[in-house]
Amino acid sequence: ELGPYSHFMQKEIHEQPKALSDTIEAVLENGFVAELFGTNAAKLLPQVEGVKILACGTSFYAGLTAKYWIESIAGISCDVEIASEYRYRDAFANPKHLVVTISQSGETLDTMEALKYAKELGHTMALSICNVRESAIPRASELVFYTRAGAEIGVASTKAFTTQLVGLFALAVTLGKQRGRVDAAAEHGYQEALRQLPGSVQHALNLEPQIKAWSDKFAAKQNALFLGRGLHYPIALEGALKLKEISYIHAEAYPAGELKHGPLALVDESMPVVVIAPNDALLEKVKSNMQEVRARGGELFVFADLDSHFSESDGVHVIRTPRHVGVLSAIVHTIPVQMLAYHVALARGTDVDKPRNLAKSVTVE
Ligand code: M6R
């Protein structure tokens, strides 16, 4: 079942080009049409005036990424909340807001309960982004987008996350199109970006030997810091969670602009700092944050692309993806942080597919 791979997590990381192309197939065939989200979607989506995303863990980070796309492409306000927090607070419900739950398993109790609570509060439109057909959460939702990642066995979410991002990106573009913010040329551009995505992800996978070479530097550490900005901040969060979850190294993620507001105090020679730094509009800002880290002796491990202009130097290690892929760069830059966590865990000899204390599907509180 594992084929040439040592663990399900490694296999699932490498399955991403296929999982992504299966998930985008319908978008490439039909464009960004409401029907991608179910038969009721043509009626419901045009009524949407805001989006509220509810999820846990890695799925929550998919939601944080989606917020950037939904607000910039669709021009609709979007807030993202941890399901276990939402379900226990006196929340305000606007029935014109679409509730979007994100769950690989479709059975996560906190997400399911948050959805029920949203309905009790008066929400009437719910969309589930889910990988398991006919599971509890999509069954309780008016609309559904099934990711086509195939079964995910490793406890660490990998291909589920990147395919969720595709579903959420498709939602942002579809809402934007309905609101007249995405014209035919822009739609074509977004379709092309999706068409090229599996190839770009494959290029990122090819970086595995370089990333493996970094893993020894992390294996002996107690802590790691992950930094990103904008769309790459949620990817920093995801990288930190992956590392914690499977290697048991304490890792934290911050938006790089927050360094001076506290976490910079943690940085010294013993702190590895992973930076997601592709050539987007915030790169210059990220570079100055990197200098802040170097000035305190922190060792930088930078995931960049060929267009991010800076070079390796003392204490600055750089791995580059072949080119900048624009709006979907967050998806491509997820691959290196997954592989880093995997190889660090291997170097530490932990149980990669079944990390201690965790279950694949969290059906209890
Ligand atoms: O099945 P779900 O997507 O609802 O699961 C949510 C989280 O439990 C899950 O993403 C968890 O954080 C992963 N183990 C992270 O790799």
Q: Can you summarize this structure?
A:
The chain is an alpha/beta fold and 365 residues long. Helix content is 45%, strand content 16%.
Keywords:
365 residues, glutamine amidotransferase, alpha/beta, binds 5-amino-5-deoxy-1-O-phosphono-D-mannitol, 5-stranded parallel beta sheet, aminotransferase
Mean pLDDT, all residues: 96
Report the β-strand fraction as a percent range. 15-25%
Shape: globular
> Could you describe the largest sheet, including whether it forms a barrel?
5 strands, parallel
Report strand order across the widest sheet. 2-1-3-4-5
**Helical percentage:** 40-55%
Domain SIS: 41-181, 214-355
Catalytic activity: D-fructose 6-phosphate + L-glutamine = D-glucosamine 6-phosphate + L-glutamate
Active site: 360 (for fru-6p isomerization activity)
Protein name: Glutamine--fructose-6-phosphate aminotransferase [isomerizing]
Can you give a write-up of this model?
By secondary structure, the chain is an alpha/beta fold. About 45% of the residues lie in helices and about 15% in strands. The chain contains 13 helices and 10 strands. The strands form 2 sheets. It has a 5-stranded parallel β-sheet, sandwiched between helices. The protein has a 5-stranded parallel β-sheet with strand order 7-6-8-9-10, sandwiched between helices. α2 packs parallel to α8, α4 runs parallel beside α8 and α10 packs across α13. The longest helix has 22 residues. The chain is globular and about 60 Å long. The protein starts with 7 loop residues before the first helix and ends in a 17-residue tail after the last helix. The mean pLDDT is about 95. It binds 5-amino-5-deoxy-1-O-phosphono-D-mannitol.
